[in-house]
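This protein record is not my work; I was only asked to verify it. Take the sequence as given and treat only the tokens as open to question. I have pasted the whole thing underneath without changing anything:
***
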Amino acid sequence: MAGYNDSTYEGDKEKLAKGTEIVLATSGILTILLPFFLYWFGNTVGIIFFLIIVLAVIVSIRMKSKQ
């Protein structure tokens, strides 16, 4: 992860890893499915995809900063 330093991090590393894993797995799956959803449902799905990814990154950053 960008900005992660093992020697200075004082939070729960397992919780951080799980949160990061969820964000990365979700964004990967959505990225693979995005072309199909764009074909079936149109450009609105692209906007929804963008919002989901941005919100997931914000939640991930907040989880990291709280620890």
Residues 13-41 form the longest helix (29 residues). The chain has two helices and no strands. Helices lie at 13-41, 44-66. The chain has a mean pLDDT of 80.
